[in-house]
């Protein structure tokens, strides 16, 4: 359905009065790529998406879609289709009419409209619902209709602005899978805005993590999860969050925890070899070695709480220096509050951050 197109953003600046939301932002999205813009509220991700869509004017810079400069083109002339957070369906129109209305206005032949609507409905399991009105549909079905309305456009680029945030957890998971399948089937360029890291990690070919109007890191989900470029990315991506432990890197290369204990850094992939000074050690809960696995360099933590999560358990501990620590254990763990627990941190799973800049070392 349709052709796929690259998107190229060159030195994009967006201002609201004297407030600079985006400044000299550059981003290239390959044809057929699924790019997720991820970040907290107010980071500029929806602003950027609206600029690509033509719903917001840029103060400076250029937007190229499919190799064509569309910076000042109307939304309808950009070769894009958009799915919003609110379904934005016409309440008095049937599902079929909601999906076909834009094509009718554009003067598309009736036979072509029917072919496109049927194809999109089949892809999104909407065929039995084509004669219903939005009020007769569930939230998930309405969002499918909104996606179907975008699909029939047969656009070069599909834009999604937090399309699942109004749905409950189970529906979000179901539609996430459907969007992933849709992308695999269409091979279309998709740009997807979310503040939900699970959506980002599961859907994206690449993720652009944004904060304060700046892309902090642009990389594959695995690279962002395993090697965050700074402390903000490390803290924002991952659930439960990465553990952060204060200390300093000694000149001999070991990490000295504040007050008590050391951690060898054997196997750590340095970006700044030879660094010594105040730093923070980051490690994800599933990468911590515990109990007999911890070995001779273990610290002894004290278990404070065990949280059964179904497939595994989250164990909340406190280190001798008082620092909190969360780690994952098997669902059948016998640990209880008050238990001592040896823990160790393998060098190849660590993230080290410079305390003065927050940048990965």
TrEMBL record:
This is ABC transporter ATP-binding protein. One of its GO terms (cellular component) is ATP-binding cassette (ABC) transporter complex, substrate-binding subunit-containing. Keywords: ATP-binding, Nucleotide-binding, Transport. Residues 7-237 form the ABC transporter domain. GO terms for biological process: carbohydrate transport. Belongs to the ABC transporter superfamily. Gene3D superfamilies: 2.40.50.100, Nucleic acid-binding proteins, P-loop containing nucleotide triphosphate hydrolases. It holds the Pfam family TOBE_2. It comes from Elstera cyanobacteriorum. SMART domains: AAA (SM00382). GO terms for molecular function: ABC-type transporter activity; ATP binding; ATP hydrolysis activity. The keyword ATP-binding applies.
């Amino acid at each position: 359905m349709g052709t796929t197109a690259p998107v190229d953003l060159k030195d994009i600046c967006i201002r609201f009065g004297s407030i600079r939301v985006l400044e000299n932002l550059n981003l290239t999205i390959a044809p057929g790529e699924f790019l997720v813009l991820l970040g907290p509220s107010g980071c500029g991700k929806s602003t950027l998406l609206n600029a690509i869509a033509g719903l917001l004017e840029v103060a400076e810079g250029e937007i190229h879609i499919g190799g064509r400069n569309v910076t000042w083109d109307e939304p309808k002339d950009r070769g894009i289709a958009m799915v919003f957070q609110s379904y934005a369906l016409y309440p008095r129109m049937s599902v079929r009419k909601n999906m076909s209305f834009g094509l009718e206005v554009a003067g598309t032949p009736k036979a072509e409209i029917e072919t496109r609507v049927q194809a999109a409905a089949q892809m999104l399991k909407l065929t039995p619902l084509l004669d219903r009105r939005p009020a007769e549909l569930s939230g998930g079905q309405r969002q499918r209709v909104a996606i179907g309305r975008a699909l029939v456009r047969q656009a070069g680029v599909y834009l999604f602005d937090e399309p699942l945030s109004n749905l409950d957890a189970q529906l979000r998971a179901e539609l996430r899978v459907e969007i992933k399948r849709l992308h695999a089937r269409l091979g279309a360029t998709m740009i997807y805005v979310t503040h939900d890291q699970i959506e980002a990690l599961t859907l994206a070919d690449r993720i652009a993590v944004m904060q304060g109007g700046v892309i902090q890191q642009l990389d594959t989900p695995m690279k962002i999860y395993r090697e965050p470029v700074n402390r903000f990315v490390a803290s924002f991506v991952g659930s439960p969050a990465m553990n952060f432990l204060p200390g300093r890197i000694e000149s001999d290369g070991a990490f000295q925890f504040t007050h008590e204990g050391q951690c060898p850094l054997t196997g750590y992939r340095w970006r700044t070899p030879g660094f010594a000074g105040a730093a923070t050690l980051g490690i994800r809960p599933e990468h911590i070695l515990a109990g007999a696995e911890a070995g001779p360099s273990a610290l002894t933590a004290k278990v404070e709480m065990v949280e059964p999560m179904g497939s595994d358990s989250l164990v909340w501990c406190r280190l001798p220096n008082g620092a909190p620590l969360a780690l994952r254990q098997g669902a059948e763990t016998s640990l209880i509050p008050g238990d001592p627990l040896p823990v160790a941190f393998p060098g190849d799973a660590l993230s080290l951050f410079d305390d003065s800049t927050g940048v990965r070392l």
